[in-house]
Design goal:
The complex is a heterodimer of chains A (141) and B (148). Chain A is built from 1 helix and 11 strands, in the order αβββββββββββ. Chain A has one helix spanning 6-19; strands at residues 21-36, 40-47, 50-52, 57-59, 68-77, 83-90, 93-94, 99-103, 107-110, 115-124, 136-140. In chain A, a hairpin with a 4-residue loop joins strand 7 and strand 8 (99-103). The chains are: A mainly beta (141), B mainly beta (148).
Chain lengths: 141, 148
């Protein structure tokens, strides 16, 4: 093994001591835990039929041709900012369009710390075939 | 002598930018080196959420912003520039983001400086738990004599 000249070692050490050895140093690490909660909730439902708040199922009950059933759903917003909700029904119509679900406001803004109400309606035509029907209403923010 | 040289070569990843000088480094006989203390420390926090040091705990909803002010102290006589990075900087496809009012700040020698660290959610954020780690880094130079 080739020996490093002593003079070179001394010179290198002198340079390092004079200039300094620089390195990035992590002084502190901070961990952030964020718990995000759902700000939107249903606070009241009023209207035809019955509404089960645990399952969010609206049972209209019996509806006849050329009839309308509706419920008014009130949403609350716990967030510090306003939140816009988009409502849609899937499917929006059944029996070839003889049973149609609709909203008075498919897009509604719920103010911060406030509430907003949307009415959901089921409308039938005189050609509606007797039977059981179901749809799913989606509320998206 | 060779030992000191080797030690510096192992440590020495040279980088440009601001530099801080440790004032309390001892190079003792027998080729050992001692870094006595870290000059940067967190001395005060305030704002939203709560702290279980060094963890910031925040509970929030969609479409909100929460922030905490962190104050750093510098025990060395020299100014130290610190840089802050958060990893990962966002979650849930960007619906939850972390950030700072300044990603780099100078903590004056024997003084303090503050930075605001914030987290923001969009209206579409998915409820759940999210975590990130913030690193506060600075550069140090070994071997410079202290100035005071």
């Amino acid at each position: 093994m080739k020996k490093i000249p002593k003079a070179l070692v001394i010179a290198l050490v002198a340079v390092i001591l004079a200039v300094g050895a620089v390195y990035a140093y992590t002084a502190i690490n901070v961990t952030s835990h964020v718990e995000v909660q759902e700000p939107i909730s249903i606070v009241s439902v009023e209207g035809d039929g019955t509404f089960d708040t645990s399952s969010n199922i609206w049972d209209i009950g019996v509806i006849y041709p050329v009839d309308t059933a509706s419920i008014a759903i009130t949403f609350a917003n716990e967030a510090a900012g306003a939140i816009t909700l988009n409502l849609s029904a899937h499917p929006a119509s059944l029996d070839g369009g003889n049973l149609v679900f609709s909203f008075d406001n498919p897009t509604v803004e719920v103010p911060a710390g406030g509430t907003a109400t949307v009415t959901v309606s089921a409308n039938t035509t005189q050609s509606l075939a007797p039977g059981s029907y179901s749809t799913e209403v989606t509320v998206e923010r | 002598m060779l030992g000191i040289l080797a030690l510096f070569l192992v440590i020495g990843s040279i980088e440009s930018g601001s530099r801080a000088y440790f004032s309390d480094i001892e190079v003792a006989v027998g080729n050992t080196i001692t870094v006595a203390s870290e000059p940067i420390s967190m001395v005060k926090v305030s704002g939203d959420g709560r702290w279980n040091s060094p963890t910031w705990l925040v509970s929030m909803y969609a479409n909100e912003r929460k922030a905490t002010t962190i104050t750093f102290a510098n025990s060395s006589p020299e100014d130290i520039t610190i840089s802050l990075t958060v990893s990962p900087p966002s979650h849930d496809e960007g619906n939850l983001k972390f950030g700072f009012d300044n990603q780099s700040l100078v903590v004056p020698g024997k003084g303090e400086a503050s930075v605001v660290f914030w987290v923001q959610t969009s209206q579409s954020v998915t409820p759940g738990s999210y975590s990130s780690i913030t690193s506060i880094e600075h550069e140090a130079i070994l071997g410079r004599p202290q100035n005071d």
